[in-house]
């Protein structure tokens, strides 16, 4: 069992600005733990988490892979999230590298086909498009969940860059909910980019039916 | 933690700024040195991903001239030690990074590079 990262340094007041690890976060952790052996086998050099929030997921995968064998990059649009990710790295003595950025924008030209593990637990809740736009511009806590049309506005933008980022042995783990139209996402990724996928885990949590999808070449 | 390994992967992404937009130039930096566990396999694996000129230049900007101008043919223990230190142990905590092409300035604060752009700058 890989221990859940220590996030006791984050307080209630931090979670006014930063997404508090919840069922979706823990489902992603479980999916990574389930694939632990395969993840180690590909000897990843670069791991990139989009939307790292508290930093809990990246800190967890660092424990799976070891702190010195991989570069752990994290982006988020929310500056409190980037600070929290840095603090979580410190707290768990793992070298997380937070960058304030939208998706992988400033990294994508240099990381062409170079990312071995790509992670994204995105803002997936369906909202009116304006709400998602405002949340992206505001870069506050609303940006953790406001997903626009079908909850896919932010995810869809990112999906367009995944194929360019993934290394030949790369794996992309994405959290999604039923409302996001999972068969549709998988069909588009296969049809448009030739990326295959599997549903590695799913779970009902209250009203949400959560999934972890894994894409690869 | 803007370490040189991360700096070597960051390019300017302002709308229309697509050539000569890398490497970003450091200015007014405050640095901290922190020891990190050395992993020779990681360094050997990562070496082909490094833009060597960018790394040598960035290290010089931070006052470190220990790297050879070109990657040596023989990757020995001593070279890996040097590379490890430059890539992973120098942390830029405060300062700025400027695009060599469009002169956009990206601030670094509390060790975190702010690569966010205003809406009209997004491509
Ligand atoms: C559901 S939360 C997940 C946080 C954390 N990874 C976890 O699993 O607990 C979504 C995160 O994505 C971030 N985010 C939203 N839009 C983003 C964008 N365009 N680029 C990068 N991060 C974004 C939010 O700020 C938030 O931290």
From TrEMBL, chain A:
GO terms for cellular component: eRF1 methyltransferase complex; nucleus. Keywords: Methyltransferase, Nucleus, S-adenosyl-L-methionine, Transferase. Residues 43-125 form the Methyltransferase small domain. One of its GO terms (molecular function) is S-adenosylmethionine-dependent methyltransferase activity. GO terms for biological process: methylation. Belongs to the eukaryotic/archaeal PrmC-related family. This is S-adenosyl-L-methionine-dependent methyltransferase. It comes from Athelia psychrophila.
From TrEMBL, chain B:
GO terms for molecular function: protein heterodimerization activity. Pfam families: Trm112p. GO terms for biological process: rRNA (guanine-N7)-methylation; tRNA methylation. It comes from the Eukaryota. InterPro entries: Trm112, Trm112-like. Interacts with TRM9. Belongs to the TRM112 family. This is Trm112p-domain-containing protein. It comes from Athelia psychrophila.
């Amino acid at each position: 069992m890989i221990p859940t990262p220590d996030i006791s340094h984050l307080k209630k007041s931090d979670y006014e600005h930063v997404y508090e690890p919840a069922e979706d976060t823990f489902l992603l952790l479980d999916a990574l733990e389930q694939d632990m052996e395969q993840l180690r086998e590909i000897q990843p050099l670069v791991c990139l988490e989009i939307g790292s929030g508290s930093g809990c997921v990246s800190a967890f995968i660092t424990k799976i892979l070891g702190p010195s064998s991989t570069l752990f990059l994290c982006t988020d649009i929310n500056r409190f999230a980037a600070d929290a990710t840095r603090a979580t790295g410190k707290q768990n003595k793992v070298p997380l590298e937070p960058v304030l950025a939208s998706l992988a924008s400033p990294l994508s030209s240099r990381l062409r086909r170079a990312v071995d593990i790509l992670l994204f637990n995105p803002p997936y809740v369906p909202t009116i498009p304006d709400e998602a736009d405002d949340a992206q511009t505001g870069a506050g806590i609303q940006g953790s969940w406001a997903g626009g049309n079908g909850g896919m506005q932010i995810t869809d933008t990112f999906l367009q860059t995944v194929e360019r980022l993934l290394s030949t042995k790369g794996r992309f783990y994405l959290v999604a909910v039923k409302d996001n139209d999972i068969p549709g996402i998988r069909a588009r990724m296969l049809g448009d980019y030739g990326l295959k996928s599997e549903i590695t885990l799913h779970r009902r949590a209250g009203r949400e039916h959560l999934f972890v999808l894994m894409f690869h070449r | 933690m803007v370490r040189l390994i991360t700096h070597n992967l960051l390019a300017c992404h302002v709308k229309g700024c697509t050539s000569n937009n890398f490497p970003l130039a450091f200015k007014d930096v405050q640095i901290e040195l922190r020891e990190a566990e050395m992993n020779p396999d990681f360094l050997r694996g990562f070496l082909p991903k490094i833009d060597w000129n960018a790394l040598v230049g960035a290290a010089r900007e931070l006052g470190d001239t220990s790297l050879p101008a070109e990657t040596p043919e023989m990757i020995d223990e001593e070279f890996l030690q040097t590379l490890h230190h430059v890539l992973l142990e120098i942390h830029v905590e405060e300062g700025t990074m400027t695009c060599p092409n469009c002169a956009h300035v990206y601030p670094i604060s509390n060790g975190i590079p702010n690569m966010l752009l205003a809406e009209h700058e997004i491509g």
